[in-house]
Write a structure and sequence with these properties.
Layout (H helix, E strand, L loop, with lengths): L9 E4 L1 H4 L15 H6 L2 H6 L4 E4 L25 H13 L3 E6 L3 E3 L3 H9 L28 E2 L2 E6 L5 H18 L3 E4 L7 H14 L4 E4 L17 E2 L2 H13 L3 H11 L32 H10 L5 E3 L39 H16 L2 H5 L1 E7 L3 E8 L2 E8 L5 E4 L5 E4 L3 E5 L2
Parallel strand pairs: 1-2, 1-10, 2-3, 3-7, 7-8, 8-9
Antiparallel strand pairs: 4-6, 5-6, 11-12, 12-13, 13-16, 14-15
Helix pairs in contact: 6-7, 8-9, 10-11
């Protein structure tokens, strides 16, 4: 089993939002100071117990970062290549690995290859760089051809990942990022619709270039084994467990979480040999503070995330319990500017939530996990489940920990085999090493 990155705890930054950048790139403004300002956040971030930073997208784009126009220069709204290099160096000086959000499934309409296609049509040497180019139709933008956009978004033009020239271009960009910025890995955006041939070639060539480089993919639905396997990706996002965690707390029913943890990590679990990427929210889904029905349970869901199998992460600002919900047509409410970039958290957080206490909860459980090889790498075994209580163990070699979880509003005693009984406070969990 590949244990690479099993000891990691990620802090996920969406920089264009966190730094309060303009929503549209004017392509002429001087470089911003976003990366330099983010350097000032690194000590606070590390104090959570974080040892890896996922940041992105960072490369030049027209608007939200996922409509890339240049894979070799960072977005001027955030800074320039020199300031991003300073940011990466500052992370590494603090022992923080740096992973970038790699948008390889599509480009923006301002990308050079697509602009050439608009200008030269059938004669463009880049006509095979994109999927389903149809010169018998017109696009919604009035182009003299139609094309395929990601998920129907026509400003995100789907690349032809089967094209060797496209593959070579994106792999060369990745090597450039390794050489120039010293990055340690990539999150492949929209990996569930990326070409398998491209992912295999990327993995093969980049692992030869740097053998400890970590690749994980954004996968929402499907069998994670199709992506996280030898010769392809090291990990994928665990959306199934993400949903099961908050759903169990909202419905006061641990059976859904129990079923999915057994399905994934039990003795015959589908993913028992994979370190999947865990989260309670991210830049694409509602903040956990806007998802849970009971604000007091936000402490419990983070504690639980650090105890289940997988690699934990925190999305910027959620350590303070800020709220945010997807809009009908955009995700801007999920990606706000935050301190020190705004003066106050009051308009974001639950009125009665103690943000400092939530930060301390995250620090506490990240430290517990960092000091427990069983929580990092151990197998999973269910010990007890009911609607309101849940218990399981994690074992690695001779190290075993048991986790007892109580969802009730009053303390509860949970008994497992051999009459081993633990009393668990209301809406909390207890880790037992005996």
């Amino acid at each position: 089993m590949d244990r690479l990155f099993s000891d990691k705890f990620f802090y996920h930054i969406y920089p264009l939002g966190m730094c309060g950048c303009s929503r549209r790139n004017d392509f002429c403004c001087p470089p911003g100071n976003g990366f330099d300002r983010l350097i000032g956040e690194l000590d606070r971030i590390k104090s959570l117990g974080v040892n890896a930073v996922l940041i992105g997208p960072v490369f030049e784009s027209s608007s939200h970062g996922y409509d890339t126009l240049d894979y070799f220069f960072v977005d001027r709204r955030l800074g320039n290549n020199e300031s991003f290099k300073r940011f990466c160096d500052a992370c590494h000086e603090r022992g923080l690995s740096v992973l970038l959000d790699a948008v390889f499934n599509h480009t923006g309409r301002d990308f050079f290859a697509f602009k050439d296609l608009i200008q030269n049509g059938r004669e463009s040497k880049y006509r095979d760089w994109y999927c389903n180019i149809n010169f018998d139709g017109r696009s919604c933008f009035g182009d003299n051809f139609d094309y395929c956009g990601w998920a129907g978004c026509m400003d995100l033009v789907k690349l032809n990942g089967e094209n060797p020239e496209v593959q070579e271009y994106l792999i060369s960009a990745t090597k450039h990022w390794i050489d120039t910025f010293g990055i340690d890995g990539l999150r492949l955006d929209a990996a569930d619709v990326l070409s398998p041939k491209f992912m295999d070639r990327l993995s093969c060539e980049i692992k030869k270039y740097r053998n400890d480089f970590w690749l994980f993919g954004e996968v929402v639905h499907g069998d994670y084994n199709d992506w996280a396997k030898k010769g392809r990706l090291d990990s994928v996002t665990n959306y199934q467990i993400y949903k099961s965690m908050w759903s169990a707390l909202n419905t006061k029913n641990f059976f859904e979480l129990s079923y999915n943890l057994n399905r994934e990590f039990g003795s015959d679990g589908m993913y028992r040999n994979i370190q999947l990427f865990n989260f309670v929210d991210n830049h694409d889904v509602n903040r956990i503070a806007s998802t849970l029905n009971d604000e007091s349970l936000v402490h419990l869901i983070y504690a639980l995330m650090f105890c289940i199998p997988g690699i934990p992460s925190v999305y910027y600002g959620s350590e303070w319990g800020i709220k945010g919900q997807r809009g009908d047509y955009d995700d801007f409410q999920l990606r706000p500017a935050l301190p020190p970039f705004v003066e106050s958290l009051e308009r974001f957080a639950w009125p009665d939530l103690n943000s400092d206490a939530l930060v301390e909860t995250i620090r506490k459980f990240s430290k517990i996990r960092a000091n427990s090889i069983a929580l990092q790498r151990g197998d999973y075994k269910e010990l007890f489940v009911s609607n309101m209580q849940f218990a399981f163990s994690r074992t690695f070699k001779n190290d075993t920990v048991r986790i007892f979880v109580n969802l009730d509003s009053s303390p509860a005693k949970i008994k497992i085999q051999n009459n081993h009984e633990i009393e668990v406070p209301a809406k909390w969990l207890v880790i037992d090493n005996d």
